[in-house]
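Retro notes, item 3 of 5
We never archived the inputs for the S-adenosylmethionine complex last cycle. Fixing that now. Sequence and ligand:
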Amino acid sequence: MTARDPHRFVNELDAAAVERLIARLESRAKDKVFTHLFDRYAPELVPGPAGRVLEVGCGTGATLRALAGRPDFAGRAVGVDQSAEFIAAARKFAASESFADQVAFDVGDAHDLAFPDASFDIVFAHTLISHVTDPFSVLREMVRLVKPGGKLAIFDGDYASMTYALPDHDLGQRMDAALVKASFNNPRIMRDLPRMMPEFGLRLESAWGEAVVEIGSGSYFKSFAETYAPYIVKAGFFPADVVEPWLAAQIKAIDDGTFFAACTYYTYIARRL
Ligand SMILES: C[S@@+](CC[C@H](N)C(=O)[O-])C[C@H]1O[C@@H](n2cnc3c(N)ncnc32)[C@H](O)[C@@H]1O
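Structure as it came back at the time:
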């Protein structure tokens, strides 16, 4: 068996699995461990009055709702995602939270989007590029869609750095690798982007990294492990009788205050030349 990144192949999942991913995206978007990462670069995503912003791979629209809810946001935002179920959820959440006038959603594949060239002032991707089939085709599409002089932002994890503590270091290392391989098509892509951006007509204007670390307690990494560990079994990397005790050990460590997990995330803000 081989890994099928659940976020790239969400359209292959059954309804219950899609619902679990929707719940995970929504809970992640409220988790303070994670939201400060978006809050740090959100000011870069605010266009001038009547400016247009596109989020590629918007999922349930949680990031766009956070953007549209900023007091300084006076533009229009569009979110596009490959999953019709995620887009239906995005429309529902936007309507129920009164964002429907500011944010619109469409189904589309990030590798080949239907918008005309230079349609947006700002184009961004928040934890998309690690999942797609061909990250450089997606980067090319993002560059095509932003106006010359406009801004492009990419935020994602360097998932090759993701790690959970386990007393058996060797098994822990192999479980880290299996979890990452089962969950992400491109776990090292953030290491490539600074080198590749100039080749795509982009000038990197600012960039920073932050470690997401949970020690003692765990919320972000608990939800991550519970959501994605079953995909290790599904991919055939480890049997359930290895993965389930690993997950139980993580939950026990959270319960008794001895938990440790970490991953590095990067933000790149670039300008189309
Ligand atoms: C981890 S989720 C992030 C969603 C959203 N940006 C957020 O932060 O809540 C990754 C998203 O990328 C989408 N995605 C993956 N590959 C895609 C593609 N080729 N075209 C469009 N969307 C894609 C998935 O459907 C999923 O919604």
